[in-house]
Amino acid sequence: MPDNLQPRNRPDPDLISPRILPHQAAAAKALRRARSRMMVCFWTLPLYMLAIWMLLTNRRETDAIMFVYMGVWAGFALDMARRRCPLCKKQFYVKHVLMNLRARRCVHCGFDSHSVAEAVDRDGVTQ
Ligand SMILES: [Zn+2]
What's the gap in Å between 127 CA and the centre of ligand 1? Predict the structure, then answer.
């Protein structure tokens, strides 16, 4: 008889915890979304610079694209900076003044928003 007494695909106990409350799961998803938006802005910066360069070489106006792009940057950066950790209630990405774009964990208490959000997406803990 095969040893199938142990359940297979058992989730990592660090990822799935009965302590993940619905508001923490929602906050984790929002934190991950805010960081993803900011990273999209960051990685499209070369495209923006290329577009500005092409407009300038064709002697076209660059004001509109500059205002729109910088507005999107500022909006997403403010959204990311104002996000608070569901555990310690401090700013998730801001330790002192500067924002940590690479942080996947709370810079204060270490709450891992990505693991929680992935666990919720995978297992549907909430909703
Ligand atoms: Zn925290």
Answer: 23
Find the radius of gyration of the CA atoms of the chain.
20
DSSP state for residue 42 in the 8-state scheme: H
Model confidence pLDDT, tens digit, residues 30-66: 999 999 999 999 999 999 999 999 999 999 999 999 9
What CA–CA distances, in Å, run from 98 to 18, 27, 63, 79, 111?
A: 33, 21, 28, 14, 19
Question: Measured in angstroms, how far is the CA atom of residue 91 from the centroid of ligand 1?
Answer: 7
CA of 43 to the centre of ligand 1 (A): 27
Query: What is the domain partition of the chain in residue ranges?
Result: 22-123
Q: Name the nearest CA neighbour of 114 among 43, 15, 11, 21.
A: 15
Tens of pLDDT, residues 108-121: 998 888 888 777 77
What is the 8-class DSSP label of residue 93?
Answer: S
CA of 12 to the centre of ligand 1 (A): 21
* Residue 7, burial from CB neighbour count under 10 angstroms (0-12, 13-18, 19+): exposed
| Dist. CA 56–CA 35, nearest whole Å | 31
